[in-house]
Design goal:
One of its GO terms (cellular component) is RNA polymerase II transcription regulator complex. The chain is mainly alpha-helical. The chain is built from 3 helices and 2 strands. The chain has a domain of 86 residues: Helix-loop-helix DNA-binding domain (MYOD Basic-Helix-Loop-Helix Domain, subunit B, Irregular), CATH 4.10.280.10.
């Protein structure tokens, strides 16, 4: 006769974290089973989440206002603008600043080269 190995014990079931307490529906009298419903948060966690979300939205609103106020266009500041408009204008403005910075760097290099030429000519004439 073959030896039978005892069945392996089932793996231990992991408990969901407190914020994900699963609620299982009850078997109905006709034998139908309900599915697992999405987790529900405890009242304390819901309140905490609401407060954190409210704070995040307030901070985002303030940052968008700050970005809008940093834009050079005066008429833009006095009107109500959507977040999309603020971001679009900011990206456009940053692009303009990058181009201006590149032009500035090129002018500084040209100035330095001209100064070197002037210095060289001054030494030759002395």
């Amino acid at each position: 006769m073959m030896q039978q190995h005892p069945a392996a014990p089932p793996p231990p079931q992991r408990q969901p974290p407190p914020q994900m307490q699963f609620v299982q529906t009850i078997f109905t009298p006709d034998g139908m089973t309900g599915a697992l419903t999405p987790y529900s948060r405890s009242p304390e966690l819901r309140v905490s989440h609401k407060l954190a979300e409210r704070k995040r939205r307030k901070e985002m609103k303030e940052l968008f206002e700050e970005l809008k106020d940093a834009m050079p266009d005066e008429t833009f500041r006095n009107t109500k603008a959507s977040k999309w408009e603020i971001l679009s204008k900011a990206i456009e403005y940053i692009g303009t600043l990058n181009i201006a910075a590149q032009e500035h760097d090129a002018l500084v290099q040209e100035r330095d080269a001209l100064r070197q030429q002037v210095d060289a000519l001054s030494r030759q004439s002395s």
